Structure formats: structure tokens, C-alpha cells
Amino acid sequence: MQVRFSLKAGITFSGPIGPEAKNALELAVKEANGQLFVKGVPKGVPAGEVGRISWWETEGNLLSLAIESGGYTRAHDALFRFRKHVAQALGKHHLGLREISVGEFSVTLPAGVPETAIPRIPFIQKVERKPDGVILDLAVTTQDLENRVPDRIVKLIEEKAEAISYGGKTEHWELMYESPKHERPYTGNPTEEMEKRHWIRHGSSRGQWIYGPQPIQLFRAFTSIVEEEIIRPLGFAEMIFPKLDTWDVLSRSGHAKGVYPEIYYVCTPKTRDPGFWEDVADYFKVTGEVPVGMLRDRIDGPIGALCYAQCPSFWPFVQGRTVANASLPVKVFDRSGTSHRYESGGIHGIERVDEFHRIEIVWFGTVDQTVKMAEELHRAYTRVFNELLELEWRCAKVTPWFMAQEGMVGACGCETVGTTDYEAILPYSGTWLEFQNVSVNGDKYPKGFNVKIQSGEECWSGCSGIGLERWTAAFLAQKGFDPAGWPAAVANRVGSLNEVFRFL
Amino acid sequence: MQVRFSLKAGITFSGPIGPEAKNALELAVKEANGQLFVKGVPKGVPAGEVGRISWWETEGNLLSLAIESGGYTRAHDALFRFRKHVAQALGKHHLGLREISVGEFSVTLPAGVPETAIPRIPFIQKVERKPDGVILDLAVTTQDLENRVPDRIVKLIEEKAEAISYGGKTEHWELMYESPKHERPYTGNPTEEMEKRHWIRHGSSRGQWIYGPQPIQLFRAFTSIVEEEIIRPLGFAEMIFPKLDTWDVLSRSGHAKGVYPEIYYVCTPKTRDPGFWEDVADYFKVTGEVPVGMLRDRIDGPIGALCYAQCPSFWPFVQGRTVANASLPVKVFDRSGTSHRYESGGIHGIERVDEFHRIEIVWFGTVDQTVKMAEELHRAYTRVFNELLELEWRCAKVTPWFMAQEGMVGACGCETVGTTDYEAILPYSGTWLEFQNVSVNGDKYPKGFNVKIQSGEECWSGCSGIGLERWTAAFLAQKGFDPAGWPAAVANRVGSLNEVFRFL
Q1: Which of the residues A34, A117, B267, B359 could staple to B299 if both were Cys, CB 3.0 to 4.6 A apart?
Q2: Would an 8 Å CB–CB cutoff place B306 in contact with chain A?
């Protein structure tokens, strides 16, 4: 997108700018426009594209100036380069640079940018449409400019314009493999059947189930298949990733760009002082009701979210570190707790829950190592689904939502970055259930968490989530509830079903 | 506590109360005072202690009346008994009972109740101290009376007065067993050593650690000992208990009486509509900061808390059900996720964390079955700590906080209800760490969740939490980091330590 930036700023010095200093200033501006701002700009870029001080004047301690630019040495970058330069130049005249204040800042976008791409974006105080462009007046401080706010606004509008042009299609789906067909001995809904048998019961929160002994026997059978056939042969080591993700983690992982409608938020008490909470406790003791309104005023945050994607909270373990070549590819996994997603309401079975249990596999290394591990995992899963679980399944390459959100795929263009979704047919509904995935995430996480590898090569990572509820939903939907009809690899591991609870 | 209740109420009928109806009313009041209110009152209770209509009059459709009582057939209970009685009596005169409104309601407590026992308790609109008692004027509706608000207020004030008289001592500690002494080959702080070795690293949230492969080898060694020596021989079956506890669960479990300063609160998005969240996402994309203030306005709840005590969320599985004798005692456990406590700030190691991993064991049945299982567990733990982990430990009987909070122990007086805490010495600090417990909780949970057993006998339950961080903290503090010095039961299970990560 062709963009122009324009700013007016004031630079305050420690004393009046006298005639000699003014001469030095004139020279400094010339040097800035002629050399300083041109540094690093590729050859062939038209002069009008590069940052330039187009006007300046002094009054007392104050230097006022205007800078214009296209996409190269953008006006605000030029301002900061000039700050250093002019501080030196006037320092020789015993004038210290005290403060920079931004008077006006505008960004001009091409005329074609759709209106809906510029909604309530912060910092934009006025939008003016002219025949040759859209002018955005920004209310920004020096700090905001140092934080590259104008660049981020331009990028955001570009993304929104792009999303509008794609008509909201953010996922590309491409079939890669289809398994052999199997008999379909069962056509019931496994959740309903499990409820009837008292294997599971709704928890007290939405999309939450309590699992009795029998489904856990299935969960553990699947876990042991994953351990014996995938995790151990491929050399993954168990770790524990935290299950509460702070905003810092979700910012670095990229989820803070769009995950808000789907997370469970976590807040902390303002204090541990029991006196502060006494009347809340009293209210409950007197009414039998928890006073939610009183609680709202007494909690801080939200400080973050319940585990959503499982792998982000691994990365602080290696954040800011350089990993030895001998350790690569790093291969770890976590199965230490729950993931939570605020799913749409209505009636769903265990195939679509707010609280679920997943074995999360993570690896990273060079680009080659990372891509190769994804392929090995794919082969291992294929064997497990075909030979051990005997499922009817398929897999497809898709562009994951977060990459779509960040425009990563467009930017990278790599064939190998992306997600493979594994889907199983649910005979009772005739629909396909995504029950598994393998993702190659490119440099997203190593970059976000500043992880380097010894060789200095690009570092990539991958992850794969094994959802125990979804494996169970797919397996029972296809195989039914008679263990005699189950593949031996599952039936043998489950053994006889443990009927702990009999109710009257 | 000797208490008196006094109320004035109006009962509205569907038409004017004529002379004949008034005669019927006179009889009804006489019957109420003479028989209805006396029903169920133990012999020997002075007449003045029992509810009594002390005054009444009619005007048009309205019957006004005053009721006084001591602790038997309390004024509000008398009112509701009379409602039914008078509705029948005047029904014969074609007058239907339309509405009851409470005019005044006061509670008189003994003069000795300390002032601080009556803080900002809801419903109390005036407190008057007289030589012969403290009079509380309550602002209550008929609904509040049906909800037994006056009784709950009296109980609450009794508890507070009792707590004041105990001077805040809520835990009784009594040594039960002390293990043999062991050599102390190591005197370091295991957390510091593990950090140095890159075995663990602080997570991004407070009191949160990320565990690398080596401590997980220890966690899994302990898990396998627990499985092989305790869970399997004693016949416990694995389940999955939810890890988000709604207020309903925490109300029934009793935690809503006082857990507020120590929990992590969970809130939900007001909507999943991405448009509602677009400006939040935009703010992040433009500034790189998550706008916590904007989020606060867009979330609902708190709907509950992150798992705190682990066993409460099991109980909805059996809530409202009657369990067959053949299933008793029910023996289950959960190890499906994290527990979270908002601990005091400052520097702590893995022995005191906000996010931790626990195997939670739960059982219930008759009183005998429940107490016997606690004893069996105690024997199994004793064997494991002495013979397999070779720890220096002790155990003590303590009154758990929630029972103290609810005055349960005083009420029950049973020797067998209570908690046994297991403590291990930490040589580096010379302090004892509580690393394990076994609790017999009496009828608290079965009652709270309305669980019955086939025989109709009283149902009791117990629970025991095995904290993997605390086992690890105790073990490493006593045994150190050289596996050659570890007991064989642990060393063999750990095998060689898995050095996945080498950093430059």
C-alpha cells in the first residue's frame, strides 16, 4: 500500500537558539535531508518517497519543524534520527536537547481503502476522504511514535482491507489423504449413550463434563497408544506447561491479536486480607447466594486467560535463550491439564466442549528439522489411525486462524508452514469431526519469544494437539459400545470396563 | 445463644373479612397458639420460648398480626405455619389468601454479644444495645424469611462471637506419629538448585513454574509409586473432575463461606461476536499492549474459580442420586489438571506455588467404611514414606480451615472427623513442610450435594491430596540431587536423567 506520512514537531533546547546555533541547525537539516535520511534506502527509490524536513523555524528555545515522507525513512523515523543528529550539532553550542513534542501527525492512504477498514482504531482522531487519498489525523505522543504506532496502524488497515477483499474467507482447505472405508456397526450419538450409561455427566459449568471410570479407561488406552507408538519412538520428553496464560505470553504468541471472544478470563483478588472479604462471606452465609456484583469490585485484572492453545506457555522456558545444536530438534510434550474455550452455546456432546484434555506435542529446530518432524508425526498418526484404531478418516491442509489473523501465510508464502487437520466421520450425523492436528508454525514462536539456535540459522517450531475427548468421540461414534467390536489395540488396553457406580 | 424473634406482618385476603370470618379467625389464632405452634417442641421447654401470635386485628381485606418467639417455632416459622392454617380456615368463608407482607422483624440477642461480631451484615438496618440484650432490626421480605435469613444471621453472629472468644485460633494440632531420623546428606534449597540446572523456570504468572524433563521424571516416579502402592491395591478408579468450579459447586462444598481471598476468579466474554471485540484487538495491534481496562467492561461474571480444592467438582457426578450398597465405598481419584491458589507474594520455591499438580483421592460410603478407608490410606502412606521414599516425616491431626469456618467440629464432636497432615522436614530451612493430607469430612459433601446411600445410613466422605510439587520439594530437600543417594524405589523409576535442553 502506497502511504505518506507527515508530521509537525517541536524540539525544546536548554537555552535560546542564537544566530550561530541557527547556522549549525541549517547545516544539520541539510545533512539530514541529503545524507542521514537516505542511509539504507534502496537505490532507485524516488526521492519523494524518502523522509525530508520540509520546513523549520526557531523561536527562543524552540525548534519547530515539519517532516514529510513516503514509505522510506518514514517521517517519525526521520524525526528520531534527526533528534540524535541535532543534539550533537547544537551540543557544540552548549544547547542541550530537552524535549520533543509532536504537534500534528497524519497518514495518507490510497483513495481505494474501504471505509470499513478504518473503524474505531485508537489514535485516529479524524478521517478525511479526498479524491487522491484518505488522510488520517493521529493524536500521538513521542512515546507512541517510538512505539511505531503509525506503522502498526497502517499494517492493521492493510490487513483489514485484505480481509474485506477476501470476503471473510480465512481458511484454505485442501484434501491430502483419505483412509480406506470401514463398516459402520454403530450409528448412535456417543455422548447420549454415555450419559445414559452414567459414564459421564454434565459438570456445573457450560461445555463441561465429569468423566466416570469407563471413559477414562478409553482416554488412558489412547494415551498409552500415543506414548508407545508416537511419543516414545519419536523421542519426545514430558514437561509441564503452565495452564494460566498471562497477557505477556498471549502477546508474544500472537493470540492477543484476536482470541478475546473465545477465552476464559482470569482475575485475582485485590488482597488476601480476610477483613476485606468478610462482608462478601457474610452475604453468602446469610443468603446462600454468592454476591457476584460485590466480587466484581474486589478483583483485579483480568491478568490473562485459562490455557487455550496449550503450547504458548511452554515458550517462556526457553525465552531469550540460545539452544545448543546438540539439543536440536527439541522435542517435548505436555499433558498436565485442561484447555478452555468459550464455545458457542446450545447442546453439544463431548466432541465440542469448553473444557477439554489434550496431549500437546511441541518441537523446534532448524527449518529442515521442524518440517521433517511434522512429516514423521504424520506418518505415525497415519499408522495409528489406520492400523490400531481402524478409523475412517481423512486429512487436509488448512491455513490456521492465527496465521490468517496475522497475514502470516501471505507474508511467508512457504508451502511447508501451515496446519494439517485430521478429520473422522461421525456416522450418526454424517459430518466430519476435526479430532487432531499437526502444525508447522514457521518462526512465529521462536521470534515472539526471542529463541535462537546455536548455528544462527532460522529457528522454526511445530505443534500437534491430541484431544482425548475428540479421539473418544470419533472412536465411539464409529465403533460403538461393544468392546468385542473394538480393534484389539484398544480393547486390550481398556480391559474390562470398570463399573464403579450403580445408582438406584 | 438465647435468642428472641419478633415480627409484625400483614396478610391480605381476596375480600373484606366479615364478622363470621372474624370469628373463624379468632378460633384459628387460638388453635395456632394452643396446638399448631407447640407441635414438635420438646417437653419442658418454657411456653415463652415457643412462637405465639401476641396481637391481631382486621381492617377490610387485611389481617395484621404480631408474633413473638424464643428459639422454638421461631416467629417466622410460626408465620408460615399460620399461613397454611388461616388459608384453610378463611377459605371456608370464601376468602382466598393473596399476599403476606412483613412489616417489622427484630431479633434480640443476649447482651454479651461483642460489637465486632455484628459488622456490616446484610439485612440488619439498626442495632440497639439495651441492658438486657442487643436488638437487631432486619429489613426482610417474606421471601427472605422463607430463605431462613434470620436463622442464618443468628448462626453467623454466633460463629463470629465464638471466633472472637477463641482469639483467632482456628486450628488444633496434635502430633500422631514421628518417623525415624535419617542422615541429611544435602542442605541446599532444591528450587534454587533446579533453577541453576535449568530443570525449572518461572512461568509468566506469579507462583507458576514451567517444569523441564528432569523434575517430570521425578513427578512420574512418584505418580507410579502412588499408583502401584496406594491407588491400585486399595481399588481406586480414575475419573476426571472438572477444573473450573462454578459458584454452585463452591456453595454446596462450603468453600463459598470464606475462600474469596485465595482463589483465582474466572470470567466469561459477554459475547462471541468478533465485532464486539474488534476494537480491543485493534488496540493491541496498534500498541502491542492488551487493554485490560477495556476487557473489564466486556466480561461477565466472575462465574466461579479455578480449581482450588480439587474434590468439590467431583460431587455433581453423584448429586441428587442414591448409590447402591454394592458400589460402596466408592473409591475414585483425579489427576487431570492444575489447582490454583492465590498465595502470598514474595519469593517462594516449588513448595509454595499458586499453580500446582495434585493427585486427589476421594471416597465415600457409610461412616465405618469412610473412617476405615482413611486408616488404610494412612497405613499405605506410612509404608511409602518410610520404606520407599525413606523420608523424615511426622503426621498430626488438625482441624481443617473449612470446618473451623463452618463450626463443624464443634457441632459434630466426632473424633474421627478431621484432617491428618503429613509434614516433612526441610533441612535447608529447618522447617516442616506439609506435603500431604488425609481428611475425613463427615457428611459435609454428601449433604451439600444431596447424595444418599441405598441403606439409608448416614453417608460420609473423605479425601486425600498428593501434591507432586510438595513431594518433590520434600524429597529433594532431604535426598539432594545425586541419584546414587536416592532410595532404589525412586532411583529405579527415574532412570537416567533426560538432559533435553542445553543452552549457550
Answers
A1: B267
A2: yes
